[in-house]
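Recall the central idea of this unit: under ordinary conditions, the amino acid sequence of a chain determines the structure it adopts. In this exercise we apply that idea directly, starting from the sequence alone.
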Amino acid sequence: MTQATAQPQVAAAPAEAVPANVARFIAELAVARPLATAVVEHRTGESITFGELAQRVENVAAGFAQMGIAQGERAVLAVRPGIDFVVSVFALFRAGAVPVVVDPGMGKKNLLKCIAQAQPSVLVGIPLAHALSLRYRAAFSTVRKRVTVGRRWLWGGKTLRELQSHSVTGSSLAPTRWDETAAILFTSGATGTPKGVVYHHGVFLEQVRMIRDTYGIAPGDVDCACFALFALFSVAMGATVVLPDMDFSRPASADPARVVAAIRDHKATMAFASPAVWRKVAPYLEQRSERLDTLRRVLIAGAAVPYATLAQLKPRIADGGEIFTPYGATESLPFSSIAAAEVLSETRHETCNGAGVCVGLPLEGVDCKVIQIVDGPLASLEDVVECAPGQVGEILVQSPVTTREYFQDYDADMRSKIRGDASEAAARTQGRAPTKLWHRMGDSGWRDDKGRLWYCGRVAHTVWTEQGPLYPEQVEGVFNNHQAVSRSALVGIGEHGHQQPVLVVELHGGLPPGNDLKQRIETELLQMAQAHDLTRQVKRVLFHAALPVDARHNAKIDREALAQWAAQERDSRRGAEAQRKATA
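Accordingly, the structure predicted from this sequence is:
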């Protein structure tokens, strides 16, 4: 028996056994707003109304059923963001199939590994994805049914166009339950191997409710969505989604002029994007003294947002508009939120003094704890020690949008999930559902006396020196205040408990020619380090042309890669110095 199948079976709680299917939002909107625009592709100009979207979804779902795609079957989804993407996702939900979403930016090796782990029986994808499946047959060995979004070649199956062309009326949504698997979303693998997060229909429904209520999103809003998965939420809430002309797999490459054009042409009232996008759009607007007067609500997520970006962007949106930076993870989203007005007027000053990044108050219905950092599994809440306010520890979360498990990854479940108290853990072994489940975010942070949460970095990125731990976001906040610094990353070289802290710096405008300017900036940074208790251990500064970032949002700094690079730089400099002394 494998570890995955050795897990005790959890009986569904009565409240969770009620019917629920995410695709019902589309059917309801087709009745309430049939002629309203649902999705617009800004590049092609193609659009679709809610009535047309619901009909296409129903047609394709019926086509899936005719192909023998049964409720619960897993389907790899490899479709570029656009109308076909939205149709495909909601048709899979309507049919009761389980979309498996992998990020192409995670690299071919991880991508193929994730697909093989998911063991899909269906592939819904563009021609390139089907060609890839023929080239790497082992990863796709379980695929038996194919739907091509585009032109079909030698691999057989159906095309999305064929399925859409057969009009169906009066069909029913698959009778999925609240606690039934709706999708498997793989993490980006920014801090290790990507993991498949199991989403239930109930989690998706709660996410729609929580995002809608928190940010006041309503039918009639127009969302310029620069992150494809968030576009699905906006459609479900009745907003019109505008997909800008950009490569969604590489947000840092977005042309700010095209993003601004999408907002202006469709009078977008809201927009969602990675910090990497706004780091380009904000200066673009500022340099041209331009405003986006229809934009009332901006959401920025995926990594900590530089306050310089918030300060640049805030005056460029509608009067009375606001920028929000939600915090969360694939396993529990959203968690908390904070407005730019609070950051710019208050918390940024604490960030510059080493407090970390304030991510605001937990949202309504979200429970949060900060516990002493422990390396290894925690069986129940009785095994944790909560931190006092102001003390840094690991962040825990429990909420209606907290996912319960990873897909066939018992070890990851053991490392990341805490099954309530000891009595609840016992209930699980007896086949009864625990009343609560807590997720370990893998993030370090602390709570202030107002209950706000301050993010200090990934626990795995903590630099453990002989004098104690250094938390990256706290240390970097001090140095990022230097006018020449675009961003910085604290990394550790050496063994755990004896690491040497190294600050790697990316300058505005890239690396300057020659060494004089770098030497002056290095001296000033080291002086800043000595002036602050938190940073006194930092005695080495390295300059990097462009800090490596994650594949999904192009915003999280890849500190593992930087730590290896910093160690190589140290060894190279030591070698050069030894050679210089030997030849002197």
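DSSP finds 17 helices and 27 strands in the chain.
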